[in-house]
Amino acid sequence: MEYRDLYDENRVPLFKTIKKGEKPEKGMYYVSVAIALENIDGTFLLQKRSIKKGGLWGTITGHPKSGETSLDGIITEIKEEMGLDVSKENIKLFKTIQTKDDFVDFYYSKCFIPKEKIKLQEEEVADYMFASKEKVLELIEKEEFHKKQAQMMQTCFYYIEKGML
Q1: Residue 78, burial from CB neighbour count under 10 angstroms (0-12, 13-18, 19+)
Q2: What is the pLDDT of residue 164?
Q3: How many CB atoms lie within 10 A of CB 93?
Q4: Is the confidence at residue 148, as pLDDT, over 90?
Q5: How far is 77 from 64, CA to CA, in rounded Å?
Q6: 156 φ, ψ (degrees, to nearest 5)
Q7: What is the structure's pLDDT at 6?
């Protein structure tokens, strides 16, 4: 059973945990992570979640395990869901939002992503693709892309366009 660390509204650790899948009490928050992985050719690595996980396209996402930092959590998720190793030095935190239950850390990395190294975590991920910005926006418009992650990708595109990533 996995556990998540809990934080107060200012993201100060409470030194309490909850089981994966449980909702925190009012005033308590856990951390979620997501990453926009851009290949060196300018396409983005997307994953299609398994049907039991909603069946939508999106980015690599997850939750740090108890004791993991947010950055360690996203590295773990990339490895577990896609079988890829991405160096901490190549990953940038570009935005954090707070929802009613969590702090969501949005990361970005531009690196070489070798297709032959991708190994999908079958119970979580049904498929993957490398998509252009235009394809990502098309999936968002057709509502085939996870809504929270759509916001992250649109913000990421803005930051890239402005030279901030």
Answers
A1: buried
A2: 93
A3: 14
A4: no
A5: 8
A6: -60, -45
A7: 98
**Extended beta strands in the chain, E state:** 3-7, 13-19, 30-39, 44-49, 57-58, 60-62, 92-98, 102-111, 125-131
pLDDT for res 87: 94
Per-residue tokens: 105: 């850390």
Q: In 3D, which of 58, 56, 46, 90 has the Cα closest to residue 71?
A: 90
- Which single residue is written with the structure tokens 């290949």? 39
Length of the chain: 165
Q: Could you tell me the sign of the dihedral formed by the alpha carbons of 11, 165, 151, 122, in that order? A: negative
Rounded Cα distance between 31 and 130, Å, is 27
Residue 90 has pLDDT above 90, yes or no: yes
pLDDT at 77: 96
| pTM for the whole structure | 0.93
Ramachandran assignment for 143, one of left (phi > 0), alpha (psi -120 to 50 degrees), beta (any other)? left
| Structure tokens that stand for 86 in this block | 């991405």
H or E stretch including 54?
Answer: none
140 phi and psi, to 5 degrees?
-65, -45
Residue whose token pair is 């999908």: 120
Tokens found for residue 81: 């869901």
Indicate the DSSP class of residue 42.
S
